[in-house]
Specification:
The chain is of the alpha/beta class. The protein has 20 helices and 19 strands. Residues 281-510 form the Sigma-54 factor interaction domain.
Amino acid sequence: MSAQVQRSERKPLYVKVVTQPALHGCWSVNISETGIGLIATPRRPSEGPHENEPVELSFSLPDTGAYVRVHGTVRWRHDTAGGAGTVAALGVSFGAFDAADGVKLARYLSTSHLQVVAAYASDDESRAVRQALDGVASPHFAASAEDVHALLSRGDMAALLVCGQDEAQALALVESLAALRAEVDPTGAGPPSDLAPRIVYCAPAAPERLVALFNTGRIYRALGAWPDPEVLCEAVLQAGREHGFRTEQWRMALELERNLLRERALAQAPVGGPGRTAEDVGFRSPAMQRVMEMVRLVAPHRVAVLLQGETGTGKEVLARILHRLSGRGDLPLVVQDCGALTETLLESELFGHVKGAFTGAVSDHPGLFVLANGGTIFLDEIENTTPNLQAKLLRVLETGDVRPVGGTQVRHVDVRVVAASNRDLGEEVRTGRFRADLFYRLNSFTIDIPPLRERPEDIPELARAFVEQFNRTLKRSATGVAPDADEVMNGYGWPGNVRELRNVVERAVLLSRPGEMLTRRLLPPALLNSAVPRTDPAGDGSLRARLQLVERELIREALERHGGVLRRAAVALGMDPVTLGRRARRHGLWNPE
């Protein structure tokens, strides 16, 4: 299963992008399956997301009607002050897509071609343009200046052919477009004009006028009326290449400048990081340390991996770490939940289908294995697949050959398969619910992920990582996890595992006041009612130890009942406030600051 794999290709895309946090006048300038380049005109430098911050994007794909929503991370941002105000350029890497939006984008990128507008072309000229560009580009015809602007606003046109025999009309269009070729539109209503489509002039005009237009950058080429088809085709191809080159050159110049500024800042900044996520946690439990050792061991080798564990233990997180460490990290990672679709839909989604294969198959669909070529495919809940589909998965694993539904042609792919199951697949084989041959093919390297209740040492570290994560994403300032909340979380069984812990911390961070530690007051009632306090493993069950536990619980209840006001709690307990403060600090229940 070896194949020559290319990196995800950047393509020009000039469409309006809506961001959250909001960024005024935001347009995309290029896109790939893994990220997008943006340019915007923020009203103030602090507006919108900054480096290493999460961002939500919404934009349309030209000529398809598809709308894409994706969550990503700002990898770099560069702000430049100019005469028209501040201009911000951003590079965003994609994370999670809404529903099947990632597949929509991949299909658009794999099927999109060079797009060209032909303005004012007569019927004969239209036929000549179609013949000249057949198999090279997709022409779109405009009969008026309004039609031209509407087509250009789609965002994917690489060239504009100005045709027709009306010299005044053709020159007026060129001049009107020149008004949009300022470096940046200060209103934020359009994309950077330096990246606008190249104009190939195919209408009559005086030679001296054409020279002036060329010298001022208003037109890219002047071919005269009724150009030779080969000359026209070559001009469009050159315009497309120049278009892509200028886009990439512009992007690289901004990124280079941004990297230089970042290096200078790092040289002066103290050692530290922007914060952790669950993927960056250093697990303390021996069980998870062994799991991570196995992940690091198997990641560089092209073998199928089977992840087994209860729901919520973090199988997809481990699959992403495997992909990142595999040497395929800059190529696609495709995720499919095998329990979310019927057998027919899942087969079509994984292997693709040809046009007419079934009702509703109005076009060819390459399938997820083809879209993941060179990268990794993660098949979650693989135990939910049918025996028929399991046989087809086995063939792909053994040969690398994928045949779409209803098709006869086979495509060879190089895909690393990571599968996951909530059940013991060995037991599923013994009961006849899972094919033994597929199990043994997947079972070449199995990693069993222990539930969270069997590794309580990881709970505090995970909780603090989630606090940092949600402080960033929710714009909160929680200062950590208090000992009383730690005690409750350590005593809970966590049937939902890490996913449940993540949700509990997210809720607590949302409920917290600015600068507040997360105390048991912020935990869900179900957690408080179900948690069983763990005894101190160093304790001996003596009367002194038991009295300390009772004292701690009484002080905690009094502080909660009186909103954390120490003096009121002391009156309720009949104690001196100073004495209560000293004991509350000893139990980790009160911080005078």
